[in-house]
């Protein structure tokens, strides 16, 4: 049984509005993507890493991140697709000789503060349950809104924010992506593709620090986390 981390990093970072793609912005002197890859490189529970990059940035990613920081577990860097779901599907296609019970962890390239101590529990849960999502309980009240009118207030006790990593046996996530493609279903995370097959997905509590660096405010938070020695 192999454990592979798929790292989608093929987005364009439009909401960040930076002059370079956000995964290459530097935090503490290293690209965000290098911080993220280090979490998996240094984990004894991860056998290999596949990075998914925009096609035109693959050479840059190889030279300026993978080679420069010596990520030896990176097995391949493959081209992404139009949406995150397409990128993950391309990454699944790059697993060398996958077997059904191999565990695939999918983790956004722009979540560099994921607590790596979670990885053994995430992998074990994916093996036992068939799917595992890391997330945190919602802290605010959530409103459903249509046309600037509140149309509902879901019960907060049941609401969690889904983060990554999300982990699955290869057979499960392969089937979920194949079905989504065949049925033209678009989900905003990988677990939703598995859920719609009627298969169980467990939630493991993660950290409020495991932010997805999406907008400039997230960089301010990232600097604050890096300055916080209790991290
Ligand atoms: N076609 C895409 C879109 C996103 N991602 C990756 O999925 C993760 C989460 O996506 P997000 O933060 O939304 O990144 P972007 O799509 O780059 O952001 P934006 O929507 O602002 O352009 C990121 O690591 C991003 O690189 C990807 O691999 N392929
Ligand atoms: C997968 C994800 O990070 C879970 O929160 C998120 O759904 C990705 O969304 P995006 O709009 O593609 O960034």
From TrEMBL:
<dbReference type="InterPro" id="IPR050088">
    <property type="entry name" value="IspD/TarI_cytidylyltransf_bact"/>
</dbReference>
<dbReference type="InterPro" id="IPR001228">
    <property type="entry name" value="IspD"/>
</dbReference>
<feature type="site" description="Transition state stabilizer">
    <location>
        <position position="15"/>
    </location>
</feature>
<dbReference type="InterPro" id="IPR034683">
    <property type="entry name" value="IspD/TarI"/>
</dbReference>
<dbReference type="InterPro" id="IPR029044">
    <property type="entry name" value="Nucleotide-diphossugar_trans"/>
</dbReference>
<comment type="pathway">
    <text>Isoprenoid biosynthesis; isopentenyl diphosphate biosynthesis via DXP pathway; isopentenyl diphosphate from 1-deoxy-D-xylulose 5-phosphate: step 2/6.</text>
</comment>
<protein>
    <recommendedName>
        <fullName>2-C-methyl-D-erythritol 4-phosphate cytidylyltransferase</fullName>
        <ecNumber>2.7.7.60</ecNumber>
    </recommendedName>
</protein>
<feature type="site" description="Positions MEP for the nucleophilic attack">
    <location>
        <position position="212"/>
    </location>
</feature>
<dbReference type="InterPro" id="IPR018294">
    <property type="entry name" value="ISPD_synthase_CS"/>
</dbReference>
<feature type="site" description="Positions MEP for the nucleophilic attack">
    <location>
        <position position="156"/>
    </location>
</feature>
<dbReference type="GO" id="GO:0050518">
    <property type="term" value="F:2-C-methyl-D-erythritol 4-phosphate cytidylyltransferase activity"/>
</dbReference>
<comment type="similarity">
    <text>Belongs to the IspD/TarI cytidylyltransferase family. IspD subfamily.</text>
</comment>
<keyword id="KW-0414">Isoprene biosynthesis</keyword>
<keyword id="KW-0548">Nucleotidyltransferase</keyword>
<feature type="site" description="Transition state stabilizer">
    <location>
        <position position="22"/>
    </location>
</feature>
<dbReference type="GO" id="GO:0019288">
    <property type="term" value="P:isopentenyl diphosphate biosynthetic process, methylerythritol 4-phosphate pathway"/>
</dbReference>
<comment type="function">
    <text>Catalyzes the formation of 4-diphosphocytidyl-2-C-methyl-D-erythritol from CTP and 2-C-methyl-D-erythritol 4-phosphate (MEP).</text>
</comment>
<dbReference type="Pfam" id="PF01128">
    <property type="entry name" value="IspD"/>
</dbReference>
<keyword id="KW-0808">Transferase</keyword>
């Amino acid at each position: 049984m192999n454990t592979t981390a798929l790292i989608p990093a093929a987005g364009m970072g439009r909401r960040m509005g930076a002059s370079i793609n956000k995964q290459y912005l530097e935090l503490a002197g290293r690209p965000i993507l290098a911080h993220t890859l280090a979490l998996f490189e240094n984990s004894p529970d991860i056998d290999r890493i596949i990075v998914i990059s925009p096609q035109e940035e693959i050479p840059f990613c190889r030279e300026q991140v993978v080679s420069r920081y010596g990520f030896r577990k990176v097995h391949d860097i493959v081209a992404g697709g139009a949406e995150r779901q397409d990128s993950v599907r391309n990454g699944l296609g790059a697993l060398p000789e996958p077997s059904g019970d191999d565990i695939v962890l999918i983790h956004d390239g722009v979540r560099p503060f994921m607590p790596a101590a979670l990885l053994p529990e995430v992998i074990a849960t994916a093996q036992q349950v068939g799917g595992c999502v890391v997330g945190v309980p919602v802290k605010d009240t959530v409103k459903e809104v249509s046309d600037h009118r509140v149309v509902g207030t879901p019960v907060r006790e049941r609401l969690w924010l889904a983060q990554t990593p999300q982990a699955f046996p290869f057979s499960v996530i392969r089937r979920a992506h194949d079905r989504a493609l065949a049925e033209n279903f678009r989900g905003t995370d990988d677990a939703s593709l598995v859920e719609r097959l009627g298969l169980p997905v467990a939630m493991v509590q993660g950290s409020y620090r495991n932010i997805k660096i999406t907008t400039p405010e997230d960089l301010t938070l990232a600097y604050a986390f890096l300055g916080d020695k209790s991290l």
